[in-house]
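Changelog-adjacent note: as of this version, every example in the card shows the full chain rather than a window. The one below runs 192 residues end to end.
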Amino acid sequence: MGRAASRVTGFFRDVAETYHAPGRVFRRKFLGGLRENQLLAWLMFACLIAFVARLPELRARHRIGDMDQPFEALVSANLVAMLIFAPLFLYALAAVSHVIARILGGQGSGQSARLALFWTLIALQPLVVLSGLLTAIGAPQNVLVTVSAVSGMAFLWVWFSGLRATEWPPTESNSEPDAYDLSLIRHNSYKI
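Full-length structure tokens:
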């Protein structure tokens, strides 16, 4: 297997592992040494996927006459929102989360806070795509609300796990297993 193929395989393995052991994935990425351009690429990729996943909803809303603008205008406005304004907002959100973590005793950097937020966005893109697909097929509203609620809870859980792993990295004195790491619970390596 080539080097590029192993990177892609590792990327998807990390996304899948984030759902059951987010702390481990964040620690591995944090210790692996990330560059800012890599974090920006993850953010832009997540925003692009979110934009594409939203297209079926825009089409459906336009088709039923919920929107007065032409479809192309809706797509253009959403593209600008997702690829220009959303990244700016998410950078600001990462900065605010870092400041709050520092107030609470966090030892990480601004880059570690961006890692926590941007990798969370990447890892949860399958749920965003699922929501877009359900909208495209006309799923009932209660299903869409349930998927949105589960996505929101998963986002908060993974993001806070990432902040915990990057802002408060384990040291000699606090190197106990991560209580939020579901793989440890499943393998009975850690008792709650």
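Structural remarks: Residues 3-186 form one domain.
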